[in-house]
């Protein structure tokens, strides 16, 4: 039930911190990841040489973030594919491939068919799912549940952050199993994960009213672009998807490095561009590159709304607006940066007088191919 909230979406965005916290709950001990639900795959996880993540929509963007973390920590190559593309292109699969499906509902037909196909072709299958007892987990060798709680609004929000959390736990579990991270490193990443719920609370609290104002003055905008690099790239794609789904606005997410290879031609005076800015603190940070991307689009008249770390002053002269997020290590930044974009999609839809819980033409779970 909505419990006094104006929409399920608003309620579910406010539950993003809790969705992460509940997905972490009971899954670590003394600085190590403990996932007994993966015991049946113990031998397999030592032998696999490849992970393929399959999903649709928002879940696929969570999968892209999982790729960055699993490759960084467990040093296993990860491909992320849309379920419906994977299923119909004769993919290369064998017993050393772990196919990880990501689905909030556990009923998405495209993903279910892809899981069945993978199993028939010798791959081992793991489901990351938010719905106990749904079909995809039942068809998989093992399941790692997200504990976001029931998600009612059609466009996914809290399930997304829970899916990323589960994929990161999987990455740490694989790293432990395969010895690619030592205990201290695993513990440090777990601490980063455990610190997220409080930081997410801060973002929901601090960003909401400013974003509502921004959405209000943008209510007749025709097009919005989103730019990010590295883990900011899937966030850009997710921000764009939310605007399409909720506000029926043409929106595109781009890898910022790709700008000069095409998308910069779209920039004309007044074009609104959200830019996800990485923390400047990390010595290997892409911060300078993203700031120079901002300068390039600014010079062509873009109106830039930066999502940047508290204390990042370098970005201020180049942005029309800065939405602040707390510091987190690079792989964890996207979980914070995505929340203002979820809020923005919702607020823009509300400013346009649309139904944020039930956007036109969409269904919460698509049970046909
Ligand atoms: C879409 C929903 O149709 O399916 C999206 O509208 C969702 O919100 C996508 O991301 C995948 O759904 P699921 O249940 O497999 O995660």
From TrEMBL:
It catalyses: D-fructose 6-phosphate + L-glutamine = D-glucosamine 6-phosphate + L-glutamate. GO terms for molecular function: glutamine-fructose-6-phosphate transaminase (isomerizing) activity. It is found in: Cytoplasm. It comes from the Bacteria. The keyword Lyase does not apply. Keywords: Aminotransferase, Cytoplasm, Glutamine amidotransferase, Repeat, Transferase. Its EC number is 2.6.1.16. The active site is at residue 364. Residues 41-180, 214-359 form the SIS domain. Homodimer. Catalyzes the first step in hexosamine metabolism, converting fructose-6P into glucosamine-6P using glutamine as a nitrogen source. This is Glutamine--fructose-6-phosphate aminotransferase [isomerizing]. It comes from Lysinimonas soli. The gene is glmS. The chain holds residues 248 to 616 of 616 of the full protein.
